[in-house]
Design goal:
Elements (H helix, E strand, L loop, with lengths): L2 H16 L21 H12 L4 H13 L12 H13 L1 H13 L17 H7 L5 H11 L2 H7 L4 H13 L7 H11 L3
Helix pairs in contact: 1-3, 3-4, 5-10, 7-9
C-alpha cells in the first residue's frame, strides 16, 4: 500500500462514515492527490502506514474504529487513535464471545428475540442496552444481519434522534462486520431457547 492508495482508502472511509450520500459498498472512487505533493496530511498517512507495517487491513481497521468512536477525521492526528483501534481489534478477535455475552444479557431482559426491537411503548431493549453500554454496536449489526429489524424500528421511531444516530451507525458499520450467519443464529437460538 502506498500513500496514494492510503489516501483513497482514507477519503472513501471518511465519506462513508461522515456523509449520507456516499456508501463504500459502491466501491472506492475518490481521487488521490497528485504524486509528489507532500502535505502534513500525506506525511501523517505515511507514518501510519509505517506504524501498521503497510498492512491495509490494519489501516482500514484503525480508520473504521476511530470513525465509529466519533473522530470526524479518523483520529489521524489524535494521540488516542491507536488505543481506540486496539480496543476495537480486541472485540473483533473475540466477536463470538462478545456477541454471546451480549445476547445472554439481552435474553434476560425479554422472552423472545422479536421483543428486543419492540418499540410500541418506548425505546426498544436493544437500543437501551446499547446506550447503557450493556451491549455493543457489533451485536446490533449482527442482529440486524440475522433478523433485518432496522427498517421496522426506523419506521416506528421516525424523528427520534437517539434511534436515528444508532440506525445510521448500524447501516454504516454493517459492511465491516462479517459473520457466519448460521453460527451466530445458533447463539441467539440457544440464548432464547428456540
Amino acid at each position: 500500500m502506498n500513500t496514494q492508495e492510503a489516501y483513497k482508502i482514507y477519503t472513501a472511509l471518511r465519506l462513508h462514515f461522515t456523509t449520507d450520500n456516499f456508501d463504500i459498498r459502491h466501491g472506492i472512487h475518490p481521487r488521490a492527490p497528485k504524486a509528489g505533493v507532500k502535505t502534513t496530511f500525506s506525511k501523517k498517512l505515511e507514518q501510519m502506514m509505517k506504524q501498521y507495517n503497510y498492512n491495509s487491513e490494519a489501516f482500514v481497521g484503525f480508520l473504521v474504529s476511530n470513525f465509529l468512536s466519533g473522530h470526524e477525521w479518523g483520529a489521524i492526528f489524535e494521540p488516542t487513535g491507536h488505543e481506540v483501534y486496539m480496543e476495537w481489534k480486541k472485540i473483533q478477535e473475540s466477536l463470538t464471545y462478545t456477541f454471546t455475552q451480549d445476547i445472554d444479557f439481552l435474553s434476560m431482559q425479554v422472552h423472545t428475540v422479536d421483543e428486543l426491537w419492540d418499540c410500541k411503548i418506548e425505546h426498544p431493549v436493544i437500543l437501551k442496552a446499547y446506550c447503557g453500554k450493556k451491549s455493543r454496536l457489533e451485536t446490533l449489526v449482527i442482529l440486524n444481519k440475522l433478523y433485518k429489524f432496522k427498517e421496522q424500528v426506523d419506521e416506528q421511531l421516525k424523528n427520534d434522534p437517539v434511534w436515528e444516530s444508532t440506525s445510521r451507525l448500524i447501516y454504516k458499520y454493517s459492511p465491516f462486520v462479517n459473520i457466519n450467519k448460521e453460527k451466530f443464529s445458533m447463539i441467539v437460538q440457544k440464548a432464547f431457547n428456540v
